Amino acid sequence: MNILVFAEQIDGSFKKSAFEAVSYASQIAQAHNGTVTAVVPGNVADDKLAELAKFGANKIVSIKHDNLNGFNAETYAKVICNTASAEGSSIVVISNTYSGKSVAPRVAARLKAGIASGVISMPNTNAGFVVRRSVFSGKAFADVNLTTAVKVLAITPNTFNTLENAQAANIVNTEAGLADADFTTKSVEINRVTGKIPLTEAEIVISGGRGLKGPENWHLVEDLANALGAATACSKPVSDMHWRPHSEHVGQTGITIKPNLYIAIGISGAIQHLAGVSSSKVIVAINKDAEAPFFKAADYGIVGDAFEIMPKIIEAAKAFKAN
Amino acid sequence: MKILVCVSNVPDTTTKVTFTENNTQFNTAGVQFIINPYDELSLTRGLELTEKLGGTVTTITVGLADTEASIRKALAIGATDAVRINAVPTDAYFVAEQIAAYAKAENFDLIFTGRESIDYNGGQVCGLLAEMLGLPSVNVITSIEIDGTTATMERDIDGGKEKVSANLPLVVSAQKELTEPRIPNMRGIMAARTKPLKVVEPTTSELTSAAVGFELPAPKGSVKLISVEEAGSLISILHNEAKII
Fold it and tell me: Half-sphere exposure of A69 toward its Cβ, with a 13 Å CA cutoff?
């Protein structure tokens, strides 16, 4: 059995999510006596490609083409599926990043494969091919049986560990076989926020709600985030009032996150908000209302005035960092 | 300009999720259903575009007759007409096949889906549908403008935004920020009653996946409270006890 992994490159390098996907595929391969092939659309240097072998890729198919450096769902799906056919892959693993979410269903449709996205478990093959995924924005889990010969698994980032399982770096350069007409969408401009940790990749997230009274008080969130190397987030009312950008809104209609640590300051914990954060490993709630629903979902709580509490925590965090 | 908006009928965001039939079925008892919030944004943006450029906005829903309240609401908000594929939406693959079968003959210029439905969160219909129709797709868009046959969009990427252009016809998925949802007015509600709602029987489709069971997350243990005076000790607790920093 061959397992194909789409290893997404960004500016010629891989993110942790790509190594997680290779590690995930490698574990399936070990359990089922299979091999792992990683496919990399876009120009990546050999020493970078070799990193994939460290996490268990037996073969790395590099498809170098200037127009593949930027993401394009349709052409990426094409080259991934061409590789899947050439390798005879029966499982395709894709990290469910924004690009992954965009390409995975296209791959599934091309291969006529059953697809599960937001996967949070290894496949259970005792009865069929069952994977667990998060549903109702984190309010529940569903076990899904994929009944097709070829399966596509879009795994949730930050869920599976990267596991070293070094293989010899077997890098194969393959022609893209694409014409200009294949590039149906054009990337005009990319703006990445620099110097800040993206919310979806953050291991620690500090989040503020209406209890902070106004955008001018966000230094309380930012100072703690800086001290702990965390990303910042907010509740829906805060982004609706434009105190913070929509991209920071976590919850059912915003971003679903699962960091190791989530600290909620002045957020009551409405069911829609909890849905987006409840998979966090440890939750701390800080709220002046002892009856706030967040205290029922939190591991640690401080009942009191955030303006009195936060300076103490920030000071302790800075001291901790200094040590 | 001919626009198709895919509308999913989902439980209201405040729903307390429970399951029946030995945890194999979502318990719909007492649940209020709404238009999937991202689909509502798609619909509104579709209307804004046709108001500027002329054209029609058709909605399409895969669901049984109980989805018609949401479909009528979409008509009340302003959709020109609606299509309902008369089938239970078993999974995204099935839904996309049904919509593709209908859309194939209709030559839509632009097809909107939501970024995901807030119940099963697959986020798959946009890509599946585009591939089945052989069209380009751009997902999680936060803006879209049309100039002639070219669409210019902004989409979310990990850690930022990307400006993308593509020629029509095109399939896109709506992310928050695309626009503000519209509330239907009395005239819209009255007009919706007589707008065309076509019911189409499903095409045959092979099963690709099946949900075999559901589970609710384990309840959290009780919260450990720290006093305001000792607030600074949170950091050492997170380090020594929770071992998380």
Answer: 12
